[in-house]
Amino acid sequence: MIQTKPYADFADAVLQVKFDDIMLLVTAFTHRSYVNEHKKSTKEHNERLEFLGDAVLELVTTRFLFDNHDDPEGVLTNWRSALVRTESIGEAAAKHDFEPLLRLSRGEKKASSERARLQILANAYEAVIGALYLDQGYDAAKEFIERTLLVTFEEILETGSWQDPKSQYQEHVQSEEGFTPQYRVLEEEGPDHDKVFTVGVFVDDDLRAKAQGPSKQSAQVAAAQKALKRD
To answer: Quick check: 84 and 62 in contact, CB under 8 A?
Structure first.
């Protein structure tokens, strides 16, 4: 028997609505791994709701930027990417207490890295938007996105986190030193499905910073961020 009260309480407190079909919200928090472990009692996971919520999130974010800023398309696109990236929406989900309601397999609870945890939270955030849209309509989904995510936009502008760190660092180094930063893989660890890459950023063969990530690209970005802070 599914205990729906925690989800109804979440809808009241965080979504600020009363769900007509509370099982939509339960499904939004149900990870694929949970279904695989509870095949007799649970049939649906949150990926279809995530697909729908992703589209609603992009539309609401795009309209917000279009209505409030007259900047060129390229700038608006970068701002939108910063708002809807995994880190941004995963952090919004964590801040609003999504994690205790996640339905995960025992293995997924134990094995998840910090990056995987953030991805699961981000997926749940999009799925909740999808559930909210289906149950309460576009305006309710829009209000939730504005209140929990779009309020972070001014901070994103102030910190410059919407800019690509690699581009920032390249511009900085080229203007100050006349060189182009180079990225080299220093180490690879782990099985193919769970690799960790260590990448260094070099300027004229001088190692300026190194960082790890689940892909070469993410490790390069992290290394550039470290180098920017150092310089």
So the answer is: no
